[in-house]
Amino acid sequence: MSFFKDLGGLYTGHQTGRENSLQQLKTFPGHVMEVCMDSNSPLYESTRDIGKIKFRDLVNEYNRSEDLVVKVAYPLDRSIARYPYPGEEVIIYRAFGETTSPLTRTMVNIYFYSFVVSALHNPSFNAHPFIGTDKYHIDKTNPFISYDTAKKRFDKRIKEIGSVKENGDKIKVYKQLKPYEGDFILQGRFGNSIRFGSTSQKEDNAWKQSGLNGDGIMILRVDRDSTTNEKDMLVAEDINKDDTSMYFCTAQKVELELACSPALKTWIYNFDVPDKGSKEMEKLLNRDSDTSGLWQKAVETNKPVTEAYQTPKNDGVPLEPTPTTPAPNTTTQQ
Description:
With about 325 residues, the protein is of the alpha+beta class. It has helices at about 1-10, 145-150, 265-270, 280-285, 295-300, 305-310, and strands at about 30-35, 55, 70-75, 90-100, 105-115, 165, 170, 175, 175, 185, 190-200, 215-220, 225, 235, 245-250, 310, 315, 315-320, 320-325.
């Protein structure tokens, strides 16, 4: 707490003998109680309330009962928004803004929030039920509030708790990007990221093989790989293993394996060939070495492979694929 008090003191105006409504007010940590995400929220009055939170002042209200908390705050910057989960900690600011009341058109001093504090040092989920509260002071004689009840009270306010917790309690960590010197990284909660990086011959990554030091690269990536062990949290992008990615290169060379998604099973079901990237697959899809006509069957049609060709099987032995009738005005190379 002392860190936030000292930091807030840097932004506190001097007292002049009477309250100055224009003085710069302190920032302080707030514990999120509720988050308004749609019109079903009790915090909702109008569309401008989307993203509004109810919070507890962790400096002045750390021992106040949560059912008495009434303070609300709005996103500080609507163009760059990071919505917190109930139970997470955010930084609260005071600034002038318009209230939601249609009868009030003047700018008044209200609360805003920004930055989810990584209190648990977890990039995916930082909700904690006992921030600023001594969990050992729970009244053991109260049959309605036990330690387990208090610990799980915020989980009930999260619609998709399975997105951030595994087996009901263990916090998931969607694997985050390993940083390299000079990087600027935008990292989402769920394994989605944008890296603004560069080539460095001294770093061990997939794009250092060509180009000069300092050649820029931008990588967009989404991957669902998660862990509950923080030691396994950091990974580097892998274009051949990540679920989805886009690479914007200058002089880099990134090795790409030819592959077909196991979820689609297109190749193996229609042509009885491997559905994973391999030398065998690359050989089959090479015009010069392909003797089965698979290359033409796969790419020289205006219909998807699954519609244009079907491979009937007889006792497990694939038969020669029989093409369907070409659509009008369709030219097939021979």
